[in-house]
Model the fold of this input.
Amino acid sequence: MRILMLAPTPYFADRGCHVRIYEEARSLMAAGHKVRIVTYHLGRDMPGIPVTRIPTIPWYNKLEAGPSWHKIYLDALLLFKAVPLILEFRPHIIHAHLHEGAFIGYILKKMFRLPLIFDYQGSLTGECIDHGFFTASSFAARVFKRIENMINNFADKIVTSSGSANTELTNGWGVPPEKVAPIIDGVDTDVFRPLPQDECRERAAIPKDVPVVAYLGVLSRYQGTDLLLDCIETLREMNVSAHFLIMGFPCEQYRAEAEARGLSEAITFTGKIDYKDAPTMLSAADIAVAPKLSLTEANGKLFNYMACGLPVIAFDTPVNREVLGDTGIYARYADSGDMAKMIAALLSDHEARRQYSVDIREKAVNEHSWKSRSEKLVELYQDIVKAGELTSHGKNHTKKH
Done:
């Protein structure tokens, strides 16, 4: 099949949403399908996957996640860029990421009579509120909710990156259940795998004589970065010896805050790291943490932690339990003190860490491979294309009579 992916984001920029786009496209192409990605001017190309970009906008250079009014004209450019590509590529289906992609995809669906899949990774309004773009009680929130509700009904099928998102769409937004299919994130367990720890620590310039706790992802309040610093401070008060490897961006604010709290010696902030370097960096750690606060957004970093055999301590949310199951260790939601206690207990129990490592790696290999995810996607594509052909045939048959 030929699949046109709409990615209204600065792809690729080493964060969760982009990893999903990349891994979906990579696994589809590995199975013999053809994929083209249309995206913003920012970001970098990943090997083997054709990317078409909008014209360069010199004044816009935001790689971080989050809303921006600039996206209005960036998305218009994305629409204009997609039109000639469709004429050239002649896709069987449009696979649109994010709500902006679904809106653009709907216009293209009407123009070219193509089926549309919407890859839903969380509420648009919820994301704006999480990032402080507007408040939940504001007029803007009411407007965005109406727009979001409209977009949710544009696609032929919605795929969600978590079961919680599936529930949110059906129960919270009234989307018919038969229109929604959960296809949670996955991981390439051949790439993400446990590597020799001493070598990885040497490459990462991490001390070899202290337990290391890893975090990989965007740094922000809604990702729980503020609570993570609180957690590190609590561990210091508990006299727990641990070094935190915090990988992600933007890190300047949190580096300054850590310094102000006197935590700098206990933390290595790497800034943005290349996706291909993530397995090495993660393998330098003993355990990993996932303090994300969103109750509906996917938590893609969990899959990378699991595949690298890292025991994971996460807040107790439906999304985290769906991915980790019995292999996860759960702190009370948004409770940094409870997370600190969990970290201290796990660091002091070598045998528990070893067993969690074995179990979590096994679960990643058996249940979370991208190959199985892409097979489900292709089945959806084929069902939607077939349904469209039957509908078109029915209309033509009616006209003849």
